[in-house]
Write a structure and sequence with these properties.
about 220 residues; single chain; 15 strands; Metallo-beta-lactamase, Chain A; globular; seven-stranded mixed beta sheet; alpha/beta
Length: about 220
Amino acid sequence: MAYDGHVEPDGDWIERVDGPLRVRKLSVEEMDNNVYVLSCTRTGVGLLLDVAARPDRLREATADVELVAAAQTHGHWDHVRAWEELVDEDDWQVWGHEADTTEGMFPREPDRALVDGAVLEVGDVRVEVLHIPGHTPGSLTYLVDGEQYERPHLFTGDSLFPGGFGNTFGSDEAFAQLSSGMVARVFDRLPDETWVYPGHGDDTTLGAERPDLADWLERGW
């Protein structure tokens, strides 16, 4: 199946390969939570993004990789429902930002506190951690970029979707954090061909969204 960025909840996953990076995408449960498995084509080492739900599906999706850890985009309940079972029964490592730990969003303390600018080594793949708060205080975006790839790959959780930034729940301060962070750290830095993998729904590119950026900033959500 060709990779088009669309998956059905609890349906088949899709995947693509770009240089040493393999991206596998699946959606779980009624909230249509996207889960991504980033793996190295040479070594088979992998990283899962968001222990959202359906532990058995997450086990299945990572069965052919040597899993380093699961890394959270943020701590909202729909993104952490498989955490405790996968830690207790499978001894998974789960990593996340300390701000969402402080807010009590995670069901338990992460095994590693991820910080802005950290680089996660996944075999030959280097994953840069971008802390862009707003949707939650500890929201993280993950970037895979470099000359060995046809395009940058950006995993945005619930901070950027087709059509706008993530929900900031009516807070002007949170919207200012999220919008300014996304403009400075993402739109001003990365090219139009950057592929965006959101926490729910279909993928997009920065080029598809950039023409509407001024409208998003003006409307304030």
